[in-house]
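[User] Could I get a sequence and structure tokens?

[Assistant]
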Amino acid sequence: MKRLEHGLELLIFNSRWLLAPIYVGLVLSVLLLLVKFVQEFVHIVARMFTSSEGDVILAVLTLVDLSLVANLLLIVIFSGYENFVSKIHTDAHEDRPEWMGKVDFSGLKLKLVASIVAISGIELLKAFVNTGGYSNTDLAWKVGIHGMLVVSGVLLALMDRIAASAKH
């Protein structure tokens, strides 16, 4: 019976490697975002002198939005892989980010929520710059959703703080 238990525990422990292809897929998703970023950048440059100021601002906000999503993906890839699959052995690399290996699941949740709120804020800013493309109802929904994301982020941070203080 002990052998069966040990075998089952090994199977469960090694099942974490089933997540590795998911993280590889997310890396490829960053590549897709890079292609879209370059495509949008070329599009902006081609229309630079014929576009209005508002159109340029909207295009630049789209680039910022793509950048934030790519950053979010990298946080998920690095933290998720290190927390759930295996350590990334780059300790001696000069470019290793300081936060790598130090972000626990709680920190990952907060970073994710903060990134989602930032992305939502950029989308809201784009909507306000391009108010002609949205009805008042659409803008109200966007503001409401953004507000709920902000409130959710604050409540999540508060819950983590309460949980951390309860441990002490």
Q: What stands out?
A: The mean pLDDT is 85. The chain has two domains: 1-103, 104-168.
